[in-house]
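Question: does this match?
>
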Amino acid sequence: ALTSMHVPPEDAVMVGDSNSDVLAGDAAGTYTIRLMTELHKHDPKVNYMKGNPDFVAHNITEAIRKLAEEK
C-alpha cells in the first residue's frame, strides 16, 4: 500500500490493536503503535509488547499525542 501511494515507510505509522498489526508494520518498516482496546485492556493473557511495538497507547488520543511529539 505504501508503494502505491508513494509514501516511504519512515513517513508512515501502523496503529493497530493486535500482534499481527504490529508485525505487519514492522515488516513494512513503519513506526508501530499498539493500541490497547477495551476488549483486551484487562486480559492478563494479552502481551502488548509482543511484536515489539515502538509505542503502546492506552487509547487513540494518546497515540495521536505521541505522534505529535515525534514531529
